[in-house]
Amino acid sequence: MNIKIETLSSFIAAAEYGSFSAAARQLNKTQAAVSLTIQNFEIDLGFQVFDRSSKCPRLTEKGEHVLKNAKIMMAQYQTFLERSLSIYHMNDVKIKVGIDPLVCNDKILSIIKRLSSDLPNIELFIMQQNSKRLAEEIKAKNLDIALGIFDHENKINLEYTQAFNINVSWVATQSYLDKFNDGATTLSYQDFCQQRLLIPASLDSLPFEEAKAALQLWHVEDIHTILSLCREDIGICCLPDFVLQHDLKNELVKKLNLSFSKITSNVWSASLIYPIGSQLSPAIHWLQGQFTEIESF
Hints:
Strand content: 15-25%
Domain HTH lysR-type: 1-60
Distance between the termini: 59 Å
Keywords: DNA-binding, Transcription, Transcription regulation
Protein name: HTH-type transcriptional regulator TdfR
Shape: elongated
Number of strands: 13
Family: Belongs to the LysR transcriptional regulatory family.
Largest sheet: 9 strands, mixed
Structural class: alpha/beta
Number of domains: 2
Helix content: 40-55%
Radius of gyration: 32 Å
Organism: Photobacterium piscicola
CATH architecture of the largest domain: 3-Layer(aba) Sandwich
Order of helices and strands: HHHEEHEHEHEHEHEHEEHEHEEEH
CATH topology of the largest domain: D-Maltodextrin-Binding Protein, domain 2
């Protein structure tokens, strides 16, 4: 069975206008052409869709069901044409974006959701890796743009735009503090350096330069693994507040107060990077604008 769109158009027109002649006028065809098209349609289906026993053809019971399905098919075909036309006018059909999990909170997810409605025909590829890996993928031109926490070395030979700041905290469990700091949440620099520090693997140079004086420094790839290790009293950790929100609210961990001045920064700076000299497509410009309008979190 090979039913063409023109056949469905003739059938729907005949059903809606009540006669083959009226359908022919509407479609700018001859009555004979419409009548022959519908006859061949019925042959393909194996049953009649019109009762021709009266002056004007009337839909049979099976014809009524066919009409409903034909209208659905034509609506889908029209949607296909509209989307194909919009794709024809697009400069980019597929965009590749990298996002470090350290910056991927609900605000970022909300932007991705808006992208699906504002640019519905875009095919989106998202890579979630640490910032160091994302910078390598940008340099290899495997990504169009990446959002993360990039140090100076990772920005070399790349374009970058400041995006937003992320509030972070050092935390530990109360049982860990009871065991190693007499229960106190304030740490001196000497006390701090005697702890086992759990930090994201990609941030070994920024913003933890002073932390290298610690006796034990664990670099862990996955942020949720860092938090799990902290819950198990393995050490103290530093993570974004949006990652710690649930544990802080339920008092599974406590915020630490660092009494020294060397590591007082409680924010990390997120940036966008992309290949140097690249012409950003409209979709990438849209994402860039959305990400840089985010307020600190």
